[in-house]
Please model this.
Amino acid sequence: MLVKIFTDGAARGNPDGPGGFGTVLQYTDSRGILHEKEISQGYKRTTNNRMELMAAIAGLEALNRPCQVELYSDSKYLVDAFNQHWIDSWIKKGWKRAQNEPVKNTDLWKRLLKAAGPHQIQFIWVKGHDGHEMNERCDMLATTAADGQDLIVDPGI
Model:
């Protein structure tokens, strides 16, 4: 089954800085019915790269069985890390990007690798705010969560 995951970390909507992420899973079931599941995390004061990672993790961890996945993100850092095999070299170098530069968010990178494990994943970069319908929708979902400073929304996954 093909699952499309659209993610976004929210840097807008809160005067204190980054907070919240939005994730939308889109798939067609065996009867040909299109489904969408939305996951959103409310305000947490942290970095935007960390929010992008958390959005991808939330989408992958929501899958109950191995799937073919297209994961869309406006984070070039996240997409390039997988497509250009940076993570593989980081692991071999002890999670360092350069000789003396440890990789930030190693806990989340390891969690993302674990969540990605059983799936065939293609990471696709969608330029942020370029009018891509699902990218814009994820951005709105994440921003709403950041504004509300609360946990939203689909415990049924």
